[in-house]
Structure formats: C-alpha cells, structure tokens
Amino acid sequence: MRVNGLTLSIALIATGILIGFPLWRSGGDIGAVATYLLQTGDIVLIFAIITIGLNVQLGYAGIDNFGVGGFLMVGAYIAGLFVLPPPSSEFVRYIFGLGPNFDIFPALHTEEWLPQLLGVVAAALFCSLLAIVLAFLTPRLRHDYLAIATIGLAELIRAVGTVQDDLVNGDRGLAGIIGPFEPSFTTAQYQIFFFCLLLAILLGVYWAAQSSVRSPWGRVLRALREDEIAVAAIGRSAFRFKLQSFVLGAAIMGVGAAMFAYYRRGLTPQDFEPLQGTFLFWVMLIVGGTGNNRGAILGAYIVWALWISTLQLATLPLPDELVSRIPFLRYVLLGVFFIAMLNLKPAGLLPEERRVSRWVERLAARSQRAGAPATSGQKQPAGGPRRNAVSS
Questions:
Q1: Transmembrane stretches, by residue range (predicted)?
Q2: Could you report the per-residue pLDDT of 112-127, keeping only the tens digit for each?
Q3: Was domain 36-376 assigned CATH 1.10.3470?
Q4: Which DSSP letter does residue 85 get?
Q5: Neighbour-count burial of 349, counting CB atoms closer than 10 A to its CB (0-12 exposed, 13-18 middle, 19+ buried)
C-alpha cells in the first residue's frame, strides 16, 4: 500500500509531539520517556483493537454504532469480575467475584492467567449477546433506528452501573484488577510483557479481520454497504449478514475492553462517557480510513498521540486562563483536527482498498497470457491500424 506525503507527514508530526513533550519535560531522561512511550503504546494497541471492531461494523457493513461505550463497559466489567475476589466489605459491593475459584492446578499457576483468559472470552461473549439482542430490537438494522438505539443503550448501561451500588459497586467502580501473569514479573518486566501480549492480540485480530473482509462473506458485506436492494436481488439476506458483522465487531470490542480493564486495573462508569467511550473511536476510524484495518490502527495511533499530548500543553508558558481550561480545550483542538482531516482526506489517511477477489485476478491473468501469443502474431493491415470511422 502506498502512503502519500500528507499521511506520512501527519504520522511523523504525531510521533514528534508524542516523543518531544515528555523528552522536554523530563530534561532528556531517556528512561522516563521509554516508560511513558511503553504505557502509551499499551493504550494505543488496546484502542486499535477496539477501532478494528468498529471498522468491522461501520467500514464493512455500514452499521452506525454510536454506543461503543456501552459495549466497552459491559466487556470491561465482565472481565474485571472474573478476576476479582468476592466482595468482603460493605463499602465494596458487586454481584460476584470469581478470581479465587480458578486456582485449579497450583503447579500451572492457573490463578495468574486462567481468570484473565476466561474474562476475555466472557467479555467477547457478553458483547456478542448484547449485539444480538439490540439487533432484534431494531428490525432490519436500519441506520437511523440502530444509531438511536445504540446511543440509548450505552447511556442506559452507564446509568444502571452508576446508580445500582449492588451491581458493580456504583460510581465507586472496581479496583484491584490484575493482568495475566502479573504476580510473576517485576513492574518493569511486566510492562514489556503486557505490551508484547497486546501486540500479539492485535496482530491476531487484524489477521482475522483481514481474512474476513477478503472472503466471499466480506465482499457481501461491502456490497450491502453500497446497495442492499441489489444484494437482496441475488438471494442474500441483508439482515443475516449485517447481524453477523455487528456481532463480530462487538466481540472484538469485548476483547479490547477486557484488555483495557487489565491495563487500567480499576474501572468507573466515567471511563465510558460518550465523548471518550464512543466519539474518540469514531474519530480514530474516520481519520485512519473506514473499510481499511491498517487505517484503523493508524488512526488510533495518531488521534491518541494528539489527544494525550494536549494535556501536556499545560506545561507551556501560557496564561493561567488557558492553562485552567486545557482539559476542555483539548476537545476543541480535536474537533478542529477532525474537521481539517475531513476536508483534506475525506476517505481517511489510508483509504479503503478497491480490489476484486484473487480468483478473478488469477483468471484474468490466465486469460491475458493465453491471448497474448495470438495477439502478437496478428499482422497489422497496410497503412497501419484501422481507425474507427465514427471516432475519426
């Protein structure tokens, strides 16, 4: 895939900002900068997984999911409840804690990785079930109905999680969530291990998403996105294929949400507010390029690099009125960047690749090779090639 100059320039600027601010603030402390970049890399990889999940829905099938935060909250809390022990205080209340129940084989240290593994699986499963329920509540997955339903569902989930103290500890949230194999490493070692684990998960999700979009199933989804009536005319069920895309994208979001819980080690309903829980991922996907999984990863990197770096503007010699408003001005800066990208690159930094199936490409290449000798052996009529009478 070719990368044009604008895409490369924006990626380099984002990288320069991401490295430059902490390098300047730390006085050139390479160790501190490396730690900061490793932690930033963790969240970029997690958000890239979630953005690929949104791309499977929006980029493949054109499904408008404005309730990403609701799916993330369900997945993250389910994963956290699989790891935590049962509540032991009247000030900490949640429905269950399964962590100690998985100390099945002490020799294999199952208590250090089995709860996290089952938590990821459960998060993907619950998010998939939520997508199925939502799909059948919004007949035919129409864009307008589904967009409104997903917004309402996300806010309902967040409100219930905040108000019901006995469910997931209310607005106090969950704390003490540990990642896989965390007790076996030192802090510095675990940062590297967790980054490598996230990278492996992202590569697996990317491979699965790429394989699906290049398959006949993926081509049907892209056709549905363009014209549902034409797809229905050849006997394909639009609802069934869009439901599959919606469920698959939700499952990928569940995996990303579980890893977010293990990264944060604590969760509150405020982590899934609409601006950060939904809007940010839409910006990442649109900036990177809908319908392109590489674009989803690139968009997650660039947008998060700019988003996290805006908080460091408070270290600059600015008036006090501006410094106190930096947490709010970052939304303005992100909005300006988003609008600029919509004007400069409407299709995203890495637009969707338009290509036919490999089978058709091989068939066309064979036909061209078979016809080449006959074409080269033909003689031209006297006076050169004959012109079309109409065009002349």
A1: 6-24, 36-60, 66-84, 114-138, 145-163, 190-209, 246-263, 275-291, 298-316, 328-344
A2: 899 999 999 999 999 9
A3: yes
A4: P
A5: buried
How much is the mean pLDDT over the chain?
Answer: 87
DSSP string, 108-153: GTGGGTHHHHHHHHHHHHHHHHHHHHHHHHSGGG-HHHHHHHHHHH
Does pLDDT of 213 surpass 70? Answer: yes
274-312 burial string, b = 16+ CB within 10 Å, else e? beebbbbbbbbbbbbbbbbbbbbbbbbbbbbbbbbbbeb
Q: What is the H or E stretch that residue 388 is in?
A: none
Q: Is the pTM of this model over 0.85?
A: yes
288 and 51 in contact (C-beta within 8 Å)?
Answer: yes
Query: How do the domains of the chain map onto residue ranges?
Result: 36-376
CA 289 to each of CA 92, 118, 184, 251, 337: distance values in angstroms, whole numbers, following the listed order: 43, 33, 40, 21, 15
Q: Report yes or no: 117 and 109 within 8 Å, Cβ to Cβ.
A: no
